[in-house]
Amino acid sequence: MKSKIVYLSCFILMSLTSFSQSISSSPYSLYGVGSVYDADFGVLPSIGSSGMALPSDTFINNLNPASLGYLPQNHFMFDIGGKAISTTYQSSSRSESRNNFQFSHLAFAFPITKNSGFSVALRPYSSAAFKISNLKLPIENSQDFYYLTAAGSGGLNNFDFSYGYRFGKKLSVGASAAVLFGSTSDNRSFLIMNSITSIQKKTTYSGVRATLGAQYKIDSTFTVATTFKLPSQINASKVQTVQTVADDVANTVESNVASDTDDYYMPLEMGVGISKRFKNNLNMTLDYEKSLWSNTNQSELYGNFVNQNRFALGFTYSAKKNIRKYWDRIQYATGVNFNTGYLEVDGKRVNDAAISFGLTLPIENTYSSLHISYSYGQKGRITDNLIKENYHKISLNLSLDGIWFIKRKIE
Amino acid sequence: MHKFILMLFFAATMISCGTDADAGEFVVGSDYLAVNNKVILIDTLTVDMSTINFDSLVTSNQSRILIGNYEDPIYGKIKSNSYFQLASASYALNNSGSDTEVTNFVFDSISMILKYDNYYYGDTTKVQSFDIHRLTQRVKPNTDDNNFYNNSTLSYSDESLGTISYKPRPVEKDSINIKMSDAFGAALFQKLKKREITDFDSFNEYLKGLVLVPSTSNSSSVIGFHVATSKVRLYYSKYQADTEEVPYIIDFTILDATKQFNSITSDKTGTIIQNLPASSSKLSSSLTNRQGFIQSGAGVACRIDFPTIKQLKYISANGAIVDAQLILKPVNNTYSEKYPLSDSLKIYVADNLNRLSGSLVNSAGTAVFGILNKKSDEFNENIGYTIPIGAFLQKEMLKQSDSRSSLILTLPGISKTVNRIVLGDQKHLNNKIQIKIYYISY
């Protein structure tokens, strides 16, 4: 146990340091507060990120706080994940591949009473990493052009606290508070005629967002669930330096000037999901979520936001013939996910579709397991102004389970 | 097994820093990029043009003897007399000390040698004539400072000491030689021979200076000569009965360049700018056929104002002028081979009363000029002077006080040439001013 705690604290430290490095660079990160990460726990990446109606009994289900009502008593759960992503960016004229590895999440959960549980999770929310080199752009009101070079970095993190409570055997409700915090840096330089203007902007965000969730067991094999993510305002403030270089002399227009900037608004998001088990070894999950981005009246500073629909469907299968045989305890999973995206770029939506496969490998004779998932997806499309991203993603989620409050006889 | 997997994750978080380089060639939604920072061209800023008149230009110590006159189809008559004081390195005749030798020296001749300095303006195919007169007053300024101005004059005697009518060849030839009056030369020689002139003071007492006065009847060009190498040369020789005469010379040159100046007068009667106001005022281009005028020597200059510059502050909450160009076009048919366009314009910054505060500078503090684009096309549309005014306008836009600076355009060598140019204003039919202001909001 002691060594486990040492490992844990090491983990937290490591993860926090890698947090500050936003590494997923995408052309779409230019918008909003960056590209939103998917950082789902446990088996969820394998089943297309569906599973709003699943209980947190073998892993922490981050999709619905109500699931914490099913935390097994005296168990301490810990979940950590990482992803390896290989993305090919395609425009009508060229394509380019980039690989990266990123931290996905760090979470733990424990029961408070026999029918309530609590979890804390830390995960990246978005990455604002992008890069633009010498992009030729028209100067408004003229035939001339200027050249833009830009680089973005940083992103937002999500630190959330969830609580779930189960009423009797059928109904469970939950709530969570997510603290969104972080900062994005945006450095641009404009080559305009014979001058270079550089604008360095660091925007700091902070805000809190609440999520409410419920799960209801209709019978032992069928559960329905719903979640409401409440709209929220993420306060933004910026510090900016503007410099112009003309005739080889730099002239500072403003230096580290702090000012308020338009706040970022999170929408109301409503989701429903079901989970149905067939023949005791095949489980189907189906989620639908609608995000009302249009109603947020987001500042045009962040881009053009539209309502988003997200559909997710997943299946898990485990043989469970012989519990003593390791290979029989392996769970197989597959899923699909489609979302219409909340961004509209040049009048076109940036949708995202993915298919996933996964394995859950049990570790020793505990509830602990390693979830390996592979997914392939496409985001955006190739048109005049859009880029298509084809990505292959391998997620490794480690769900650890420790029996708490019971002193082990043998360490 | 636990530990092994933990190690694996450690490794994963460690290498999460490493990623492939992003070349930055993929960009979506270039319109969106302009939301935060708009880059716009402003070409509608009001530019006012007017003509001003400097009442006096310092023309002494300019290292040029400017002489001639011509009648300009636009600017009227212009004329330049050149005054100077002469001196010599030595006032002794070439003797070895014996008086007997001196008595043997005889005067031969005297002439003025003027070295072309390649400057000319007007029609050099026509004959130019001028006379040399003797000053009856010393070359000494009337003003407190030690300068002579384009409107300074000195009195001189009517008698001509020499005259020349010639076709100027300022580029092909090296110099002109004007034979001067023998009586004048002989008298000067006698003074030297009798040692009545022994030093500069006694020489200057005798010959206060000379003035070159062009004939108003038949000159149609203005020519420049070197100050340092032009001279009056007196030829004399030693008389020896038996052998050949040995020639000697004594040169009188303009040793003190501050004692040389050009008196440039212009007669604008009947021209469009005949009623130029006082030097602290201006004549709007709306009263002069949408044109602005510059004539060196005569002190006519063009003034540019930006009356609405401060309004650019309100284009966006925060914005900066990062670059700007003012393109001034010479009016068609006001220039020709005879009256060529200058390669550049010299620009000063001045206040509302035309008081100059210095040259127009760029952000590095270096003086900038209006540079002529010579690429000519069918309609001469591209011929114009481009002046970089980004740094100036940014400063003007942000200036706290209500005062506005204006730009005064002159031609280089305003004090020692008679070049001129006619520029169109912002509403001129064919040769409009163009302004290009590149503005970024942040």
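Helices of chain B lie at 2-15, 30-36, 99-103, 182-193, 200-206, 390-398.
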